[in-house]
Automatic annotation (TrEMBL):
Residues 49-471 form the Major facilitator superfamily (MFS) profile domain. GO terms for molecular function: transmembrane transporter activity. One of its GO terms (cellular component) is membrane. Keywords: Membrane, Transmembrane, Transmembrane helix, Transport. Pfam families: MFS_1. This is Major facilitator superfamily MFS-1. The chain crosses the membrane at residues 45-62, 82-105, 125-142, 148-168, 180-201, 213-235, 287-312, 318-340, 352-371, 377-399, 411-431, 443-466. It is a multi-pass membrane protein. Residues 1-20 are annotated as: Disordered. InterPro entries: MFS, MFS_dom, MFS_trans_sf. It is found in: Membrane.
Length: 493
């Protein structure tokens, strides 16, 4: 994954001085490592960092979205989730209450993870939400299920933004796209396998007097607890503290990573926390543009995650077992498209065109999925929508990561980005309404509108980036606090 490490070392776009790490000392540290040593080190970081957080995200996404599988496995009938409540079904209430706390508790999480460290923070919340998942297998009233989902939202709120922030601190701007893709690919594989796993766990129905849908929560929750405990020894800290994390890196290697990131964008070392610095980032309208792109994307991805088995069953006429298993192939295609677009984005240093390509896949697939008369053709549309929407998650993360500087601005941006993703989850849990079954046309129109809005935002930010880069090249302005006199930072579009 890091085959271009040597190229990135000599072709960095910025070279920003830090008070305790001068440009000459950066060059000296980087020169200590041969290209072969650099590749070996980056590969070691990939295996330890990207794979670990990716596996944990795999479990996170599976735990967050297994409601649809449990719903058609008997939970809807046993808990009366099809009944209305406040104008929507109880099932929609159970799905959306998760996001009320998931959104609210995300901004503090990027502050907490910097203070506690990723190992303690991420392993603790993962183990805790695994215990909540086990509890969901024993509820007898839908209100209890909704309450546990609220608590689950509090715990999972700290996970995704912390991972996005952590990965962005380890890699240069044109290495991070592939890493985000691999991180999210593992999540997509979870979505692909979740239906098949759920179908297998359903067969335990009747054991110990428990329904099959309950075993989905109990077994997956137990697995989550085990991985959460093990992750304490597998996760690593931020680069400036990595040499203290169970001998993962030597101090010399940690200095190399810091120098490499500092040469790229000048924000590798942590700054003292200041609420003013953290919240001042909110004055940058571009951050809200990135967040809105993520909202539009996650509205579609969560709608698919929560309702695809139901749509396959009700709209396309597949059996319950087939609906569970047919979820997997579209997510397998999404994984291929996701890594391919991530590789292209890093190699050619582009971000906006990748997002537009993904949205065009959705705009082609949604009408096919919703309006064609043949169920097989509609299922082909599911492939396009799933690939485009899910591939856009790491693409949007790389887009914002490439166009901001500063530790606390990066932390704020990660929180707002994923927070708006939570709002997208609320929207995604509501777009396919029970009263619109089996065609679900209003939900399809909403998803199409989200894709079109994303194209408009990317076009607008691209025009801004082009204009600002030209002004910076003429020496009229300095971008993203690039006030060290070099004026080398440029936006990526």
């Amino acid at each position: 994954m890091a085959q271009d490490a040597e190229k990135h070392q000599v072709n960095m776009m910025e070279d920003v001085e830090k008070p305790d790490l001068t440009s000459s000392s950066q060059d000296d540290i980087l020169a200590e490592f041969s290209p072969q040593e650099q590749r070996k080190l980056i590969h070691r970081i990939d295996r330890r960092l990207v794979v670990t957080v990716g596996v944990l995200y795999c479990i996170s996404l599976m735990d967050r979205t297994n409601l649809s599988a449990a719903n058609i496995a008997g939970m809807e009938k046993e808990l009366g989730l099809a009944l209305p409540f406040g104008g929507v079904s109880r099932y929609s209430v159970v799905t959306l209450v998760f996001f009320t706390t998931y959104v609210v508790f995300q901004p503090p999480s990027t502050i907490i993870v910097r203070k506690l460290g990723p190992r303690m923070h991420l392993s603790s919340i993962t183990t805790a939400w695994g215990a909540i998942m086990i509890g969901m297998g024993f509820v007898h009233h839908w209100q209890d299920l909704a309450g546990l989902r609220v608590i689950l939202g509090i715990l999972e709120a700290g996970f995704f933004p912390s991972c996005v922030y952590l990965l962005s601190t380890w890699y240069t701007r044109y290495d991070v796209g592939k890493r985000y893709s691999v991180f999210y690919i593992l999540g997509s594989l979870a979505s692909a396998c979740a239906g098949i796993l759920a179908y297998g766990l359903m067969q335990l129905g009747g054991h110990e007097g428990l329904g099959g849908w309950r075993w989905i929560f109990i077994i997956e929750g137990t697995l989550t607890c085990a991985l959460g405990i093990g992750s304490y020894w597998l996760l690593v800290d931020f680069p400036d503290k990595a040499h203290q994390s169970w001998k993962f890196l030597t101090e010399r290697e940690a200095k190399f990573i810091i120098a490499r990131v500092d040469q790229d964008r000048g924000d590798a070392q942590a700054e003292p926390f200041s609420a003013v610095k953290f919240f001042r980032a909110g004055l940058d309208i571009k951050i809200w543009g990135y967040a809105m792109i993520f909202f539009n994307t996650t509205t579609v991805t969560y709608a698919l995650a929560y309702f695809l088995p139901i749509i396959l069953s009700q709209n396309m006429g597949f059996s319950v077992g087939a609906s569970q298993c047919l979820v997997a192939p579209p997510y397998a295609l999404a994984a291929i498209v996701m890594y391919g677009t991530g590789w292209v984005g890093d190699k050619y240093r582009i971000r906006g065109p990748i997002i537009c390509f993904n949205m065009l896949l959705c705009l082609i697939g949604l009408p096919i999925m919703g309006f064609h008369k043949n169920s097989g053709v509609r299922y082909f549309g599911v492939f396009l929508v799933t690939a485009g929407a899910n591939s856009n998650v790491p693409a949007a993360m790389a887009y914002q990561a490439n166009n901001i500087r500063g530790q606390w601005k990066r932390a704020f941006c990660s929180a707002t980005l994923v927070g708006f993703g939570g709002f997208g989850g609320i929207a995604g849990s509501l777009v396919f309404r029970k009263q619109d079954a089996p065609e679900y046309h209003p939900g399809l129109y909403a998803c199409i509108a989200c894709c079109l809005l994303t194209l408009l935002i990317v076009a607008s930010t691209t025009l801004v980036f082009l204009r600002q880069n030209k002004r910076a090249a003429r020496g009229e302005i300095e971008l993203e606090g690039d006030n060290d006199g070099r004026n080398n930072f440029r936006y990526t579009y």
